[in-house]
Design a protein that fits this description.
about 140 residues; mainly alpha; Four Helix Bundle (Hemerythrin (Met), subunit A); 6 helices; elongated
């Protein structure tokens, strides 16, 4: 005789396992990799657009874009951590690097909210985030 609690618990466990498997397949797909690389490329373009005496609208747009990119990178990281599991996620040096840059960027945002205008090196974090473009090197045979 099985109780209702036991049945619903195993039902949700099976559903969660299927969902995790789906996410794992998604984050390991070549298309996911190229989408992330395109987002990194767009982020690179936005950072490259910053220049002295730029119009206020551009400053506002690029500032907003930074949050959008951070949200996208945070989503990518969360999906990978969930789909691959913590141990497998941190087994990759690229993922460890991404994790550090994303956590640093989140700390930067929190610091800017607490003490506006006293940034502790957003340009360094941006530069580190741009290094993600080198993930493409794992597909270059001629290195």
């Amino acid at each position: 005789k099985s109780g209702g609690k036991m049945d619903s618990s195993s039902y949700f466990r099976r559903k969660e396992k299927r969902f995790r498997f789906f996410i794992r397949r998604m984050v390991k797909a070549q298309s996911f990799y190229w989408i992330v690389l395109c987002v990194v490329g767009l982020n690179t373009l936005c950072v490259a657009m910053v220049h002295y005496d730029q119009p206020e609208w551009l400053t506002t747009a690029l500032y907003t874009a930074e949050f959008v990119f951070l949200g996208l990178f945070l989503t990518e990281m969360t999906l990978k951590m969930y789909g691959l599991g913590g141990r497998n996620y941190f087994h990759s040096s690229f993922n460890c690097f991404d994790f550090g840059v994303i956590v640093g960027s989140i700390c930067e945002v929190i610091w800017d909210i607490i003490k506006p205008g006293s940034s502790f090196g957003i340009s360094v974090l941006r530069a580190l985030r741009l290094l993600r473009i080198f993930k493409v090197t794992k597909y270059w045979n001629s290195l």
